[in-house]
Amino acid sequence: MRRLSSPFLRGGNLRDSLGTTLNGLLERIPAAERRAIREAVAREALEAGIVYYDDDNRPKSTPVMLRPRVLGGNQRAYLHRVTRVLEHAYMKLPALWEADGAVREVLPFNERELRWMRELHQPSHVEVFFGRFDASTDFGSHDWLKSTQFFEFNPLGAGGTYITPAVEAIVLRHVAPALRRAAPTLILEGNDDPRRVLLEVLADHARHLRLKRFHVALCQYKGLEGGVEEFPQNVEYLRSLGIDCWHVDPRELSVRGGELHYGDVPIDILYRDHEINDLAAQEEQGFDLSGMRHALKTGRAVSSLAGEFDHKSVFEIFSTPQFALRFSALERRVFRQHVPWTRRILASRTTDPAGNSIDLVSWLVQNRPRLVLKPNRSYGGEGILLGRDVDESAFAAALDRALVEPGSWVAQLYSPVAEKDFPVIDEQGGLSFAEYFSVLGLFASEQRLGILGRASRKKVVNVAQDGGLVAVLRLL
After folding, report:
1. Does the bond joining 303 to the residue before it have cis omega, within 30 degrees of 0?
2. From edge to edge, which strands make up the β-sheet containing 269-272?
3. How far apart, in whole angstroms, are the C-alpha atoms of residue 174 and residue 132?
4. Residue 388, SS3 per DSSP
5. Residue 289: strand, helix, or coil
6. E strands within 108-234?
7. What DSSP letter does each residue of 362-387 carry, written as one string?
8. DSSP letter string over 394-449?
9. Who contacts 316 (Cβ-Cβ below 8 Å, separation ≥6)?
10. Less packed terminus of the chain by CB within 10 Å, N or C?
């Protein structure tokens, strides 16, 4: 007899599977226990270094939402598959950029970046990424596939590698047992640790290079202030797995006898946190960046130079009919289903989301409520403007500013972000609910998927923009 699938796996709706929601389970927990959970979660977040700094430069724990988001196994498998398809599409960009002037117009670089790319790019090298795709989906919807929209890729400096497993562990330790007492079949587990995702990417690339040794450097400036310092934590974790690993400032690398070194230690492969624009600026200030240059030129850096294609306008390449035949049928299907229409803001003719020819600026003005404006190459949610949240004059002024530097901003079709009620527990353990917008950060390798959850009362969801952290867990 055919085994019936779980209703949860079909639609992600816990109410179908358990007869209630996670918030409904939280309401069954006694107030005193809810208060204890709240205090334990905040205490452990602070102890784990999951902090932000207040106006007096004092560390405070970053809010950790007191209920997880939960997905089923088929949902996780689908997100993994789609993320990998998008990564492979990204890997085509360097060759397209070299061969096609139209692609170079959509993905421009400044002179400093171009100089490094010309000097270091080796066509024979394979492209390799470790980054984070940002997306939104509503696991609880029976139409969750349609709700799944990707809106950004961070191919360098992808934050959350330490935070993600730390938040999962805290919620699994303090929240999940209380939920399970009310619903014994609610058995939850974490997704893959992003540091294991990174390790798999590094190991796969080292095998491709036929390295006989595996000395790893996680390369990021030392002494950074503010936020969570993830690299030292990640080095400690990788060493606990038996990996020879060091936290290295890129200015500490050197080349001796044709080999990359950190002090007296030979380095075989590194993960880099910095764009070449920033590295070149350091070089211009007199710092020795020959080690990083060597790593990029010899293919020992992850992400490779393909990581420089961090432009939001990459999604213009993916959503423009002119470039469609550069990609496979599978990639084009993923673009249609999960990548929003995106265009650089400049005076031009192009196609609208339906494929009709339009005057871009006029069309943007007429379709303000459907659009979001973003700086092409910034991060952290900086500068994002939702057309539905401003009036016509404010939107027109933003377009005028963007047109002063054509292509430095993009317009993207707005995709609704998942809205979820999260619990708010007061000092006495009393329970209320508040609506938050929630997004996912996806770290993928061939075999693994790590998921960072974030939530905010603002529609632009970013921890740097007064957001909080959400454990995204899998239902067994």
Report:
1. yes
2. 244-248, 215-219, 269-272, 301-302
3. 27
4. helix
5. coil
6. 132-136, 149-154, 188-190, 215-219
7. HHHHHTGGGEEEEETT--TTTT-EEG
8. HHHHHHHHHHHSTTSEEEEE--PPEEEEEEEE-TT--EEEEEEEEEEEEEE-SS-E
9. 106, 342, 343, 344, 410
10. N
Q: Which residues contact 101 (CB under 8 A, 6 or more apart)?
A: none
Contact 417, 433 (CB under 8 A): no
User: CA 411, CA 418: separation in Å to the nearest integer?
Assistant: 20
Strands 371-375 and 269-272: unpaired
Please, where are the H alpha helices in 48-191?
A: 73-91, 93-99, 101-106, 111-120, 144-147, 163-174, 176-182
8-state DSSP, 64: B
Tokens 């509503």 sit at which residue? 138
Q: Do 420 and 427 meet the contact criterion of CB atoms below 8 Å apart?
A: no
Tokens of 357: 């020819």
Q: Which two tokens stand for residue 266?
A: 């030979």
- Give residue for tokens 């587990």: 189
Q: How far apart are CA 347 and CA 375, in angstroms?
A: 17
Q: What is the phi/psi pair of residue 386, to 5°?
A: -95, 120
Q: From start to end of 307-384, where are the E strands?
A: 342-344, 349-351, 357-359, 371-375
pLDDT tens, residue by residue, 365-409: 999 999 999 999 876 556 889 999 999 999 999 999 999 999 999
Among 76, 68, 148, CA closest to 449: 76
Two tokens, residue 398: 């933003």
Amino acid letter, residue 442: L
Q: Report, as an integer, the average pLDDT of 355-372.
A: 96
State the residue for tokens 């350091």. Answer: 282
Helix, strand, coil content of the chain in percent (nearest 5): 40, 25, 35
Read off the tokens for 463. 């921890």
CA 211 – CA 266 distance, rounded (Å): 12
The C-alpha atoms of residue 386 and residue 380 are separated, in whole angstroms, by 15
- Amino acid identity of 277? N
287's tokens: 């710092």
